[in-house]
Every structure is written in C-alpha cells, then in structure tokens.
Amino acid sequence: MDEEYYTRFGIKASGGLNFLIRCNLNMKELSYTFQSAIGRDLDYITIQLTNDDIESMKQYIIAKNFEEYRYKSRQQELHPYLDGWTLDFEGVTDSGIPIIQLSSDDYDYDIQPPVERLYKFLISKYFSKDKKYKSYYG
Predict the structure, then answer these.
(1) Torsion from C-alpha of 72, 74, 79, 83, nearest 10 degrees
(2) What local confidence, expressed as pLDDT, does residue 77 receive?
(3) What is the pLDDT of residues 9-25, one digit of tens each?
(4) DSSP state for residue 124 in the 8-state scheme
(5) pLDDT tens readout for residues 60-95
(6) DSSP category for residue 83
C-alpha cells in the first residue's frame, strides 16, 4: 500500500521574509508569490510540474511525517524559531486524513520538522535558480 501524501499544500512565511508557496499536484502546479511586509502580492513564479517532479517531491510530503506535529503546542522551554519569521503550513490529502495546519512557532529551534525540509527542498530544486527569486534574495 502506498503512503498517503499531501496533494495540495501551501507554505506561508511572515516576518523577515514574506512569501506564499502553493502546490497542487493534481493540477501539476507550483507557485511562489513574493509578498510585501503587509501581505500584498509583489511578484510570482509559476512552475508546471512533471511526473518526475511529483515523484521526487513525494518523500517530502508524506502525511504521517507531519502528523506528530498536529497537536504540538508551544511550551515554555521552547525558543522562538528562525529569528522572528514564521513558516505556516497547510496540507490536504486525497484520502480521509483531516486538513492539517502547522506553524513553525510551535517547534523547538534545534529540530527540523517536515515543513522545514519541504521548504528547503522546494527552494533549492525549483526557486533559487529563478531570475525573479535572485532579484529579491540575491
């Protein structure tokens, strides 16, 4: 039996960086929206995914890897994450798994939750080489 994975998801950053990543595997679409500090869309990148792209992404969007964070809440011994900016994740599967919403504010600084691994994968594989991305982030 195949593992369940998110077929639609989004990652939103706020704070030092402001952007929105959206992905719909059923439509084979991936986008990155650059946003101002007040959430206004400035520019965007869109990518049409191939079947190979989707297969390479699946290891980063396995639903069970995110589930342990579903009910995690900030505890007093945890420290602020990423020096003042936050990653929020929302994911939907095509099965009966309920929608999940996670925030990096709920994680200890020293761990790398699946949202962070997914974010790093998407940036390195799809966005960091794009001219628009380079113009914003160097």
Answers:
(1) 90
(2) 45
(3) 999 988 777 899 999 99
(4) I
(5) 999 999 888 787 655 544 444 445 677 889 999 998
(6) G
- Encode burial over 78-105: b for 16+ CB neighbours within 10 A, e otherwise: beebbeeebbbbebbbeeebeebebbbe
Residue found by looking up tokens 């297969």 in the block: 55
Residues 6+ apart with CB under 8 A from 36: 18, 42
Sheet of 19-24: strand order equals 41-48, 29-35, 19-24, 8-14, 86-92, 100-103
Q: How many CB atoms lie within 10 A of CB 53?
A: 16
Closest C-alpha to 10, from 95, 111, 122, 124: 122
Pair of tokens at residue 48: 């049409």
Read off the pLDDT of residues 19-60 as tens digits, 9 standing for 90 and up: 999 999 999 999 999 988 777 888 999 999 999 999 999 999
Please tell me the predicted confidence (pLDDT) of residue 101.
85
Residue 136 backbone phi and psi in degrees, to 5? -85, -40
